[in-house]
Amino acid sequence: MRKLWLICVGLLFLGSCTSQSSKQSNDDSVNYDQVKADSLGIPRGNKLSTAMKRAMKWPQHDSSWFFEYKTMALKGDLAYEKGVVRRDPSSVYKIDGQYYVWYSKSVGPTQGFAGDIENDKVFPWDRCDIWYATSTDGITWKEQGMAVPRGPKGNYDDRSVFTVEIMHWKDKYYLCYQTMGALYTVRSKDAIGMAWSTSPDGPWTKTTKPVLKPADNGVWKGTEDNRFLVEKKGDFDSQKVHDPCIIPYKGKFYMYYKGERMGEEITWGGREIKQGVAIADNPLGPYVKSEYNPISNSGHEICVWPYRGGIASLVTTDGPEKNTVQWAPDGINFEIEASIPGAPHAIGLVRSSDTNEYPLAALKWGLTHTYNSYDYQSIIRFEAYHPTHHAAKGEVGSKGWKGNKEK
Ligand code: AAL
User: What percent of the chain shows pLDDT beyond 90?
Assistant: First the structure.
């Protein structure tokens, strides 16, 4: 008897599930667009699943933003060197027939935060200076030396200068980069610094003060050096401002950056990371954070380029919208254009190419970095291409992808 009762309850439960799913698979004739439905393979009729209703809202069946890529090792001085960290390459500029790149460089293993943080190296990007290299083919590189060193003891940048970007504007070059002042603790806040020069070979003049700082509206809980314990988390960039990249845009200078938040949590897409933009009238600032910040809900290193009057962005690594290419007609309001399998991170784009040629022209080739071990990273090259078919080996069309190499 008890068994029969349990079976009845089970059947009732199944019944309610079925009626629930048929409720969800209902008519969506309001948004139904026959042309789009044919293109996207959305069934006719009035029984659309939630996934199909969502697909119906996609703007188009367009693969022009979709890419795959391959990576390859660099040669010469930027080939992997044990005991040395070279990471976070800047954009690449072609100047007088030579490609230039700037990057973070440090030596020795990472000890972390458990030991003597006054003398140890807590991260691979701790105790870095900014170095640069040149190449004629983008594959074999010659390291030219240090461009920007850490500041003197007591300065806001005396512990590390790292994750650099370059902007060429009129007759000057501007490097912007992350800075860390001693002591580097788990709760340390950082700042963005800048240096300018009339030549890519320097000498570089640093601004006396940071050009961007974290928001000052979070409150730590207690005194333990623990970044997850907070009374108040504050804005998305209450602890760190990272990965600056400046784009001259609409007669102003848009500095895109990544924020890290005090009390960071894990979301349904991983780390709680967002990006923002700060805007200035002049390259050296002052940079004012946009009222619309944050302008992404995901991402890690900034990778942005101008495209057809707007700004495109490759969002990687963290958050629910990681591994997507997005585009904002106004540099602020981004929409997803494509989802990229395992998108390359820490990218340095080749700024000399015409990024307006087609959506992904900026990504024909560029630099990225790889973890040879937790301690040591090296810079590598990527080349993106636009696949036009998915075909088996030997199948007609299996070589049918359009190369994306620089012309
Ligand atoms: C990078 C960047 C920032 C972080 C670390 C070094 O790739 O996001 O620079 O601080 O990792």
Answer: 77
- Ligand 1 atom closest to residue 300's alpha carbon, by position in its atom list: 8
Rounded to the nearest whole angstrom, what is the distance from the C-alpha of residue 346 to the centroid of ligand 1? Answer: 8
pLDDT in tens, 57-96: 887 667 899 999 999 999 999 999 999 999 999 999 999 9
Q: Of 384, 251, 275, 386, give the one whose Cα is nearest residue 326.
A: 275
C-alpha separations of 100 from 168, 198, 202, 348, 377 in Å: 12, 15, 12, 11, 19
pLDDT tens digits, 352-395: 778 898 999 999 999 999 999 999 999 999 999 988 778 887 77
Q: Which of 144, 125, 244, 152 is nearest to 206 (CA)?
A: 152
The CA-atom distances, in angstroms, between 179 and each of 236, 328, 330, 358 are 19, 29, 29, 35
Q: Whose CA is nearest to atom 10 of ligand 1?
A: 242
User: Rounded mean pLDDT of the chain?
Assistant: 90
And the tokens for 26?
């209902």
The domain locations on the chain are 2-56, 68-400
242 C-alpha to ligand 1 centroid (Å)? 7
Residues 6+ apart with CB under 8 A from 152: 158
68-400: CATH number: 2.115.10.20
